[in-house]
Specification:
By secondary structure, the protein is mainly beta. Helices cover about 10% and strands about 35% of the residues.
Length: about 525
């Protein structure tokens, strides 16, 4: 009788377990010494035990090689499974995410995901680490959802069309524009992934966010641009949320990110509970006609961030850079209620905080429109804009009409046009405190349509407003409320190093601690994320 050691018996049991798991995952069992290598690879990926049939785990690992059928693997996967796709291999779709029972995620991830640290934004330079999911079908999303599908996670994948001449609308389509409430997909994560068009390709959208509970994090979305139509890196209008957009690079010629902008098929739907943190919104100057770096294709440029129908929004710690007059006049950020010609009369933009952001090199700063008059709509309400730095704004800081209960506090903003352009309906409940700004020599400060600058404009368009403890460089004191400061020059404010972008007040500034809260006016740069 052949005797085997305890260690040999243990290795035999492990080998049988791996073979059984591979078989149940829908692939030929791995035989011989290869099973040890497979185990080693999975352990290195941090999922070494996931493919074993452990009591209570219910999950497995499905290895999908470069020449295997990824769609078949997705269809056969069960909640809790991890589909491992080869880094740098190309998988040709399009791919559809079926609706399955269960509440555990099916994860599709690169075989080299361990080389993509959690919480760290990826970029094109890491392309060799990504599994490449592509589609050669004109107009088809590379990835789309079935009605009601849920709990899918993508980590370490690159998503694009197969070639630049393939017509592209949505590269990733979560939900659709015609679904009913019962069909809304939910629970999706796109993490540490690279989603892109090609430099010469028209692409309408990176990811459509028409679902519930979506996270896009640590990813890089670029070359989303079109000629003569609107484009977005991320856009949602027919999904309820929540949405988590965290630590991404976001590049698009239309709006880098937008919520609303199209008619929801679900009555009373307002995209809600939106978190936008730590992202870099960017439009390359190579897209700007007339710039020395202009690459020769006139993409239609609009805005960096826009909300047309949204509720309960946090925009915190982002950088928004480069916006210019093209298809529109180049606002960086817009809070503009749009009811789609009155067909969505419930549309609103409300309960928004915009904090700790840097906005730079934009033709216009912020636009706020509280209703879609004369079409019926909800009322824009309750926006806090606090502790932001806006520099190199070519024209106005703020254009506002009919938006209620807006608080602008502790911002530092410099513009070459008017501080504010007030028009249309009155904006009730307006508060402007503890800010540092300038009245440019060629501007009219806070200007009201038809009434001129200062107190007259405030009385007509911001009735009952509170305006205290601001530093208004170069503004005429007689035309503004008392309780504000009016230094004649930038130097008189006493910034530490404004030529280097350090707008902290120096120790000898006459305005140290002069805010309503006994803090320094302007933004507190120490509260910003590292930009």
């Amino acid at each position: 009788m052949l005797m085997i050691s305890h260690a040999q018996a243990q290795r035999r049991r492990e080998k049988q377990s791996w073979q059984r798991s591979a078989f149940l995952c829908g692939f030929a069992p791995v035989r011989g010494k290869s099973i040890v290598l497979l185990a080693a690879v999975l352990v290195a990926l941090g999922i070494g035990l996931a493919c074993q049939l452990m009591q209570g785990s219910g999950g497995g690992a499905i290895m999908v090689g470069a020449n295997s059928d990824l769609q078949r693997a997705i269809e056969r996967a069960q909640p809790g499974d991890v589909i491992v796709v080869d880094a740098n291999a190309v998988y040709t779709g399009p791919f559809t995410l079926p609706n399955k029972s269960g509440s555990s995620y099916i994860t599709i991830q690169s075989s080299r995901v361990a080389e993509l640290p959690e919480g760290v934004r990826v970029g094109p330079q890491q392309s060799a680490l990504f599994a490449k999911l592509v589609s050669a079908t004109p107009g088809a999303p590379v990835i789309k959802t079935d009605p009601g599908s849920h709990h899918y996670r993508f980590v370490g994948v690159e998503i694009s069309t197969a070639k630049s001449d393939v017509k592209a609308y949505d590269l990733v389509q979560l939900g659709d524009s015609k679904q009913i409430s019962a069909q809304v997909p939910h629970d999706f994560v796109i993490d540490r992934s690279y989603i892109h068009g090609f430099p010469d390709q028209d692409v309408q959208r990176g990811v459509s966010l028409n679902a519930a509970e979506i996270t896009v994090s640590n990813s890089y979305i670029s070359d989303i641009h079109g000629r003569g139509y609107d484009t977005q890196a991320l856009c949602g209008w027919n999904g309820p949320g929540p949405f988590h957009i965290v630590n991404n690079y976001l590049e698009a010629s239309g709006e880098n990110v937008m919520f609303g902008g199209a008619l929801p098929s679900i009555t009373n739907l307002i995209p809600s509970n939106i978190e936008i943190r730590g992202n870099y919104f960017f439009k390359p100057l190579s897209w700007k006609v007339g710039d020395p770096s202009y690459a020769g294709t006139h993409w239609s440029v609009k805005n960096l961030l826009e909300f047309k129908n949204a509720r309960n929004v946090v925009v915190d710690g982002n950088v928004l850079e480069n916006c210019w007059t093209d298809a529109q006049i180049g606002y960086a950020v817009l809070f503009t209620v749009r009811s789609e010609d009155g067909k969505a009369p419930w549309a609103t933009v409300e309960n928004v905080t915009f904090t700790n952001n840097t906005v730079k090199n934009s033709d216009q700063g912020i636009q706020m429109l509280g209703s879609d008059s004369p079409k019926p709509s909800g009322r824009g309400n309750k926006v806090v804009i606090s502790n932001n730095l806006l520099t190199d704004i070519k024209n106005r800081f703020l254009t506002i009409s009919g938006f209620y209960n807006v608080t602008i506090d502790h911002n530092t903003h410099f513009q070459n046009g008017n501080i504010m352009a007030l028009h249309g309906e009155p904006s009730n409940g307006f508060v402007y405190t503890n800010n540092i700004t300038n009245r440019a020599a060629s501007s009219y400060g806070i200007f009201g349509d038809g009434v001129g600058e200062g107190n007259a404009a405030l009385a007509k368009f911001l009735p009952g407003s509170i305006m205290r403890k601001n530093i208004l460089i170069g503004a005429p004191p007689s035309q503004y409320p008392a309780g504000n400061a009016f230094p004649v020059t930038l130097e008189a404010v006493g910034f530490q190093e404004p030529q280097k972008g350090n707008y902290r007040l120096g120790a000898k500034s006459p305005f140290k601690g002069s805010g309503t809260d006994s803090r320094d006016p302007g933004c507190q740069l120490d509260r910003f994320q590292s930009h």
